[in-house]
Design brief:
By secondary structure, the protein is α/β, with parallel strands linked by helices. It has two domains: 82 residues, no CATH class; 112 residues, Nucleotidyltransferase, domain 5. Helices cover 54% and strands 15% of the residues.
Length: 235
């Protein structure tokens, strides 16, 4: 059965839509910044069009990127997860963005809650394990909610804590914080959850770890990532 193209009712070419979504989600740009940059390329659109495009196509692109990576991630024999949560203000009220990162820096799951208790940690862990399976080791901070949730799941013996051992997860919050400042924070819990899911998938796709490669390999990996992005949701 042939999959129907999500661009079928749009007059704008898929290449321009992919470019606009990538610029807005990947880089710390506002909607009007993206509008101005596309104007310099001869593409006349409104910033509200960019908003509509990322809301419509961002989750679709993120789902395809995630689907292509899930099977590869499940094959890790020594898979190690790093779990952490970060404070996020929504209309002056504190919420918590939970994040699971693997040992290679890939953001596996993001989940927004109003509380930081056992129930929230349990739901977050079950959501991540349902999609990616069970890890070999789970590194967390000393928040008791993790230990209580893992006892229910039955993998408490896999938990490891340490002062500096969870830096991988701590560093994963930095790209999100940069985007949060540009967006002047969030106004709804639903929009925060949606953007964090899309942003983490796009960040994974373009996370080239340039410090691990020489210049030639980095340029090759960057070209491959851009080529794969331009093929998302293609017929």
């Amino acid at each position: 059965m042939t999959r129907r193209s999500p661009f079928r009712y749009f007059k704008t070419s898929p290449e321009i839509i992919r470019l606009a979504v990538m610029m807005y989600v990947r880089f710390p740009l506002s909607l009007r910044n993206v509008e101005d940059l596309l104007h310099e390329r001869g593409i006349e659109i409104s910033h509200e069009t960019v908003r509509y495009w990322w809301n419509r196509f961002g989750p679709i692109f993120a789902a395809e990127i995630r689907r292509n990576r899930v099977n590869r991630m499940r094959s890790y024999s020594n898979w190690q997860w790093h779990l952490d949560e970060v404070f996020v203000k929504i209309n002056g009220e504190t919420h918590y963005l939970w994040r699971a990162v693997d040992h290679e820096g890939e953001v596996l799951e993001s989940y927004v809650t109003k509380r930081r208790d056992r129930k929230a940690a349990l739901k977050f862990l079950r959501k991540a394990m349902k999609r990616y399976g069970s890890p070999h080791v789970v590194v967390t901070d000393k928040l008791r909610s993790y230990g209580a949730a893992m006892k229910i799941i039955g993998n408490a013996q896999k938990q490891e804590t340490g002062r500096w051992r969870n830096n991988r997860s701590e560093n994963s919050h930095q790209p999100f914080r940069r985007r949060e400042r540009v967006m002047l924070r969030f106004r709804q819990m639903k929009s925060l959850q949606k953007f964090s899911d899309v942003h983490s998938s796009v960040h994974n796709h373009f996370n080239l770890e340039r410090h691990l490669y020489n210049r030639d390999n980095f340029k090759l990996n960057r070209a491959v990532a851009l080529t794969e992005w331009r093929q998302l949701c293609s017929a």
